[in-house]
Amino acid sequence: MTQPLRIAIAGLGTVGAGVIRLIETNGELIARRAGRPIEVVAVSARDRSRDRGVDLSRYQWVDDTAALVHAGDADVVVELIGGSDGPALTLARTSLSAGKSFVTANKAMIAHHGLELAEAAEAKGVALKFEAAVAGGVPVIKGLREGAAANEISQVFGILNGTCNFILSKMESEGRDFAEVLAEAQALGFAEADPSFDIDGVDAAHKLSILASIAFGTRPAFDAVAVTGIRHVLAADIAEAAALGYRIRLVGVGEAGPHGLFQRVHPHLVPLDHPLAHVTGSLNAVVAEGNFVGRLFFQGRGAGDGPTASAVVADLIDIARGEFGPPYAMPAASLTAAAPEQAGERRGRAYVRLQVADKVGVLAEIAAAMRDAGVSIESLMQRGANADGSVLVAIVTHEGPERCVAQALEKLESSASVLGRPMWMHVLGG
Questions:
Q1: Which of 88, 94, 176, 336 is least buried, going by the fewest C-beta atoms within 10 A?
Q2: Going by C-beta distance under 8 Å and a sequence separation of 6 or more, which residues neighbour residue 194?
């Protein structure tokens, strides 16, 4: 019999238990596709007594996660703990230093330390794989790293966080406010007790920085991602967008051009005829533009035990076959240190929502601020007064430099007529 690929798993939460269940259920099929069996030999987690719905008695239990590297003669260490630093990073460094291949679903760690880990893996001639770190079971990393390897990718963008997409879709279909839908998402398990990483766009920014590095051959640059989440999106914004022929989605955008690398996660108005407008619920979707292959569209479930476990085991099958190359599609030494592109001169259309005092002259003040900043208004809508006496004003601009909109909003924020901070969303082109 061909020697099995022996794996050790750190972290036995939803995904860790899912990996074990998948290997047990589809073991024969996996062995046929991998060319040899894949066997779990050791596991580690914080609570040994917890019932995880799988039989762990056949595996060596290791209390010290760092010691998992040397347990059961494992060939590969699978990290499903989470966190950008701490035990996960220690395990990654220890595993690669010991010459063990490493598979992870940890987007935060890869976003912050991926280059270091890639260099360590290449130095030891072992695999570092993280398909499950972006878009769950959607094979977008494999698609970019392998399927589109011959192409120059000019743009990669998409819906990268299922929690935000679930909330925005619910607000859209049911006309409910953000706070109410967030509470429902938490009750259903789509959102964490502390949802900040999701709703403030950090999770999507981690994923975008990974995709951008693979797509453009640049060093990971999470700190250069401009991030705005969905916390301040109102039901009224959803309604205004619908009236204009758009849906609101949190979209991560990465572009490589002559002025540097541009990365942004921000709520966008997405035209109804764009495929991202029809990505609903907790689904993820990624679009990439290649110079020969054209537009590639990836869509599927971005989280959960099944999809994420599927991506983890797909990485293990590659390793079992001996099919692994540079983690970022090219050697780490070949990745360029691209300067971040400043958004000011980028051209596009914008949606601006303001809560203003219900008094004479406010619209004229808004129009003057836009005019003085060089912003051309395509449409302006004013709705009736709210219970607190404020009025909602929604503006869509013609295409122009972003710096002009920024200048207009800076002036309006200091106005006594404007109540609270304006909401600025970009209109997705293409």
A1: 336
A2: none
pTM of the model: 0.94
pLDDT in tens, 68-125: 999 889 999 999 999 999 999 999 999 999 999 999 999 999 999 999 999 999 999 9
The angle formed by the CA atoms of residues 182, 423 and 383, to the nearest 5 degrees, is 95
**Alpha-carbon gap, residue 237 to 243, rounded angstroms:** 10
Active site residue 207: yes
Phi, psi of 144 (to 5 degrees): -75, -45
**Among residues 124, 129, 207, 411, which one is catalytic?**
207
Report pLDDT digits (tens) over 11-70.
999 899 999 999 999 999 999 999 999 999 999 998 888 888 898 989 999 999 989 999
Rounded to the nearest 10 degrees, the angle between the axes of helix 202-216 and helix 107-124 is 30
CA–CA dist 370, 364 (Å, integer): 10
Tokens 């942004």 sit at which residue? 264
For residues 369 and 407, give the distance between their C-alpha atoms in angstroms, rounded to a whole number. Answer: 9
Contacts with 167 (C-beta within 8 Å, 6 or more apart), sequence order? 178, 181, 182, 185, 191, 199, 230
Q: Using CA of residue 9, residue 15, residue 17, residue 18, what is the dihedral sign? A: negative
